[in-house]
Amino acid sequence: MPRGSKRRYYRINQYIRTPKVRVITREGKQLGVMSVSQALAEAQKAGLDLVEVAPKAEPPVCKILNFRNFLFEKRFKKQKGGRKKREEFKEVRLRPFVSENDLNIRLERIKKFL
To answer: What does the DSSP 8-state code read for residue 55?
Structure first.
């Protein structure tokens, strides 16, 4: 992986190299610490992939899930995060000596803002 690259690579299924992993199901239930071969058997039984989501943890954390859906959701959340709701501030300035007509116009604007 090139330096400064923010792209994240996940190890899946047979590419997980550690002897023991902590396994979490798709619903978030922990199955505990087990060998990679047992975890792969659980994932195959469910018809899903075993994905290493926290490789630096001790032992590494793997989730049983559909890898394509996982990548799609990550990408969608990233795009959605960029479209944050922007707040608008509007102000109306008044001076001590304002004509009655100007005051009425500004009051109408305040009503529209609210």
So the answer is: T
92, 109 Cβ separation under 8 angstroms: yes
Q: Which residues contact residue 30 at a Cβ distance below 8 angstroms, ignoring those fewer than 6 apart? A: 22, 23, 24
d(CA 112, CA 114): 5
Query: Domain range for residue 17?
Result: 13-65
For 31, the 3-state DSSP assignment is strand
Considering the domain boundaries, does residue 40 fall inside one?
yes
- With tokens 């793997």, the residue in question is 62
Q: Using DSSP, state whether 15 is helix, strand or coil.
A: helix
Per-residue model confidence as pLDDT tens digits over 45-92: 888 988 888 888 888 898 999 888 888 888 777 666 666 666 777 787
**55 CB-contact burial (10 Å; exposed 0-12 / middle 13-18 / buried 19+):** middle
CATH of the domain at 32: 3.10.20.80
pTM for the whole structure: 0.58
Q: Where are the alpha helices (DSSP H) in the chain?
A: 36-46, 67-82, 100-113
